[in-house]
Amino acid sequence: MDVYNVTADAETFTCNAYLALGERPVLVDAGAMDGVVDAIRDHTRDLDAVVLTHQHGDHVAQLDVVLDEFDADLYAYGPHDRRTVELEDGDQVMLGDEAFDVVYTPGHADDHVSLVSETTLFSGDVVVHDDGAFDYGSFGRTDMAGQSRERLIESIRDLLDRMPEGGRASDASAASGAERSESAGVEHMYAGHGDTFEGAVRDVLETALERAEKREPKYPDE
Question: Which cofactor names does the annotation list (predicted)?
């Protein structure tokens, strides 16, 4: 599966919007960048769906434009006028060539979900690799109305519990009778802000959890 950050060249504030290509082209979050449709078209002419991690403005400002241009379905946990599929905790969705479990991860936003496969995590804003507050393991802010640090901590714990660990054969290999192979676990992390991370994603999440559990302000002005 190939993943592209189609808002990487944005000059104004936006989330990272990720285009997952493969058998099923899907956009994870629409972002707030003018010209995102052109950025998507640089990679594909077709888009099957947009899947939202949550509906903060920097994640959905260009949503209508994208849906109109590609006539794509909208997958979202929270209510939306254009939602065609309601996501629930425990659902499974196909992005590119991989099946992802939907994990409900509120705290930063009431409607926040993360998406995790055998190899990859789309974490939205619940956990990021780096964001200016911390490097190698940061977490979504929880100082605004409707947010909760305690619920965010619980969400990170839930996400860690639901992430596959390395060292076991993939379900596909087992089902096909193929020779059993060891899985390295989740090694690709695409967060709503900051850089993409390649490596031991579980360790990044554990670091973020340790920081969040200190209950200290994320930013000095909180």
Answer: Zn(2+)
Predicted local confidence at residue 183, as pLDDT: 58
In our burial notation (b when 16+ CB lie closer than 10 A, e otherwise), range 181-212 reads eebebbbbbbbbbbeebeeebbebbebbbebb
Q: What superfamily would CATH give domain 2-166+185-214? A: Ribonuclease Z/Hydroxyacylglutathione hydrolase-like (3.60.15.10)
Locate 108 and state its tokens: 């930063």
pLDDT < 50 positions in the chain: 167-181
Cα dihedral sign for 197, 201, 203, 205? positive
Taking each helix axis from N to C end, the angle separating 149-162 and 201-212, rounded to the nearest 10 degrees, works out to 160
Cα separation of the two ends of the chain: 39
d(CA 179, CA 188): 24
State residue 184's pLDDT score. Answer: 73
Q: What is the DSSP letter of 197?
A: E
Which of helix, strand or coil describes residue 118? coil
Q: Give the model's pLDDT for residue 172.
A: 40
What's residue 220's pLDDT? 76
In this structure, the number of other CB atoms found within 10 A of the CB of residue 157 comes to 15
Identify the DSSP state of 89: T
